[in-house]
Amino acid sequence: MTVPMPLMIAVTLAALLGLATALTWVERRLLGVWQDRYGPNRVGPGGMLQAVADGIKILFKQDWIPPFADRAVFVLAPAIGMMTVLLSFAVIPVTAWWSIASALNVGLLFVLAAMGMGVYSVVLAGWASNSKYALLGGLRAAAQMISYEVFMGLSLLGVVMQARSFSLRDIVLAQSGLWFVIPQALGCAVFMLAGIAETHRLPFDLPEGENELGAGFHTEYSGMKFGMFFLAEYAGIMLVSALVTTLYLGGWQGPLLPGGLWFALKVAALVVLFVLLRAALPRLRYDQLMALGWKILLPLSLLNIVATGAVLLLRAPGG
Amino acid sequence: MFDTLRTLWLTFLHIGRRRVTVGYPENKPPLPPRYRGRIILSRDPDGQERCVACGLCAVACPVDCISLQKAEQDGRWYPDHFRINFSRCIFCGFCEEACPTYAIQLTPDFEMSEYVRPNLVYEKDDLLISGPGKYPGYNFYRVSGVAVPGKDKGLAERESRPVDLHSLMP
Description:
The structure holds 2 protein chains of 2 kinds. Chain A is an all-alpha fold. Helix content of chain A is 68%, strand content 0%. Chain A contains 11 helices and no strands. Chain A is globular, with a radius of gyration of 20 Å. By secondary structure, chain B is an alpha+beta fold. Chain A binds chain B through residues 32-38, 276-277, 279-281, and chain B through 4, 7-8, 10-12, 14-15, 17-21, 23. Chain B: It holds the Pfam family Fer4_7.
């Protein structure tokens, strides 16, 4: 089946933005379930229109740019954040036939590159705000994201070695026998942790230490520009969930149900896991975060590469 | 590591717990009679004002939100005006403790929000209720030694007649 490309892009974009908006409601309801309370339940049936109400509110709020801010960069920063996340979705294969560029032979590198650009968003936001809190928040975010990006890439190498391809479609197809989450369990765990840190979700949401930094890098932001950071975070959750699904959980593959549904189910389960992490775990201290990254996760991901390579070498014909 | 996973699991188990939220406008929370909410001025069983405008409540008030002025009629004291600024009131209940006549009382009513701040200044008309509040039988002038119309000195409950200082009798 072939879908015209402009239609595919438009539908993907609309679905992403819609889902990211809906996710704000889903997350609050789920947090309510796990914290023995209701969450938003007033607007519409079950509070389902809460996201719409929040959207209307944020659109009509005063969108204020501080006079001391670097205007151009200040406006650009949230757009970069949003763009990098949306760009990464281009190479995610939703099903065998529904994806914008999943056959791209450097697909995984493209995702890593696009996610790496996300650092610009927080750093520029922190710098352009021209405020101590925002700057420190931006610095923290940059240090955290760059640190975790290092072994995020390394943890994926095991998958690439096993699938013998950087193309996400090939990686999914290589999992038709066994999902990579079994042979690459270590890599999957490291990638999940790195992904959480990359989207700065709890327990790694250090860029936004409200006790010591105000709101962190988006302290000076208001209105829809703040909303874009917010939506980018939720789209980021979906991106990491979609990546884990694609790379470790067999993508669209699964018995009985159609591929798209399998993909959606897997992504939804991972998103729920993200929310559970937020409901259960406290924020780490900053030095703990860095120590965990450099002293535990980086060696683990290197070990994963060595072990995977060794196993592949032993199994290789004539090895 | 194990702690973290255990925390995740225990939090996950909360999925089956009952929600503790009180859906407020539909379900009212049960409040004890001594809940410290909206302040009222009560009347004695005869239907007359209990407040004798002694000003102790205004003195006890830590945020100075009570203002009153004494007036007098037929030997009875009563407040000429009595004003409570509820936008300052912290509902500590010190005024109720300080009151010698049980006149000022805090009720379990807390639903007193207003759109306009000046509306939170309650005058005597807003404060004075028609009943005795939490102390149904108490009548200050019935037990005090003050002479009022219908009750001379020494006629109060458990009060002996005043001593006649000019008499030489034992």
